[in-house]
Amino acid sequence: MFAGAMIVGLALDACLGWPDALFARIGHPVTWLGRLIATLDSRWNHGSPGRRKLAGAACAVVVVSAAVLPATGIAALLPGGWPGTVLTGLFAWPLIALRSLRDHVAAVAAPLGAGHLDGARRAVARIVGRDPAKLDTAGIARAAIESLAENASDGIVAPAFWGALLGLPGIAGYKAINTLDSMIGHRTPRHDDFGWASARIDDLVNLIPARLTGLLFALAAPAPGRSFAAMRRDARRHRSPNAGWPEAAMAGALGIRLSGPRVYADRVADEPWLNAGAPDPKAGDIRAALRLAGRASVLMIVGLIGIAAFT
Question: Are strands 262-263 and 273-274 parallel, antiparallel or unpaired?
């Protein structure tokens, strides 16, 4: 039932996204979790490094419980059979980010392709943390494609994976962990200790989905062997134990280089290149990356259909 429910959730998100009218009326589950995380951060994130680590672990437990316990209660009330599958998919719908990811990345490609760097910088600043003022055409394209590759795992494949495996509690728990990591899991002076537990948990729950995303990209690539080779060679060179897999697979699939040095507001990150030696991406490569991600999503849905048919 769970694989079928994820198909329903993916279909609803692909067709509708999360409508603005619905967001204005009730918000979104991620914003609900975000408010809880921000409150706990402001109240608990103080004291010695040891105390911050302990408080951060408690924060992670509270936030994940706040997502999983209601989801478990809702799941227990749902009927069996296809009505339960549809209703589970309906509740999973807002926890999948297929359409919003596509729209945000496409919003970078349009002005960049027209030569409007300022518009492209404003658009890419909505999806990455690096300083947009320091980005040239290649830097903007790299940032957009890297965000697409990483968030295809975090926002599409991983939620569907945990939802198919554990149902509504699985996808809700994953989304809570991923939101914790995005808000407090970064290595900053404020969150180096408080966000440590959240970052480590996020690394753990993304181990399989990130590699699965890289596999899907490679299978969907025009030249799968080139994508597989880049992933095997470069994935572990990334600063993240997980993000390198989809990013390296994407770089190999498109025949471009990704990652490399980048400037954030508070620091310069001298990262190694993925698929070094290949040319920098251009605006057209963002659209090619979107098409590749679309084909990979179709492959994932075909896989879910197969699982649903035999379970």
Answer: unpaired
Alpha-carbon span 191 to 284, nearest angstrom? 37
Give the Cα separation of 279 and 145 in Å (integer). Answer: 14
All residues at 6 or more sequence positions from 79 whose CB lies less than 8 Å from its CB, including other chains: 87
Residue range 116-163, pLDDT digits in tens: 999 999 999 999 877 788 889 999 999 999 999 999 999 999 999 999
How far apart, in whole angstroms, are the C-alpha atoms of residue 228 and residue 2?
A: 30
Which residues, in sequence order, are CB contacts of 306 under 8 Å at separation 6+? none
CA atoms within 13 A on the CB side of 95: 34
Residue 217 contacts residue 121 (beta carbons within 8 Å): no
Structure tokens at 94: 């807002």
Nearest CA to 168 among 43, 72, 49, 27? 72
d(CA 255, CA 21): 40
Quick check: 274 pLDDT over 70? yes
Cα angle vertex 100, ends 157, 287, to 5°?
Answer: 85
Which has the closest alpha carbon to 146: 232, 75, 10, 238?
238
Residue with the two structure tokens 């507001």: 265
DSSP states of 98-130 as a string?
HHHHHHHHHHHHHHHHTT-HHHHHHHHTTT--B
The neighbour count for residue 260, using CB atoms within 10 Å, is 17
- Tokens 């991923």 locate to 178
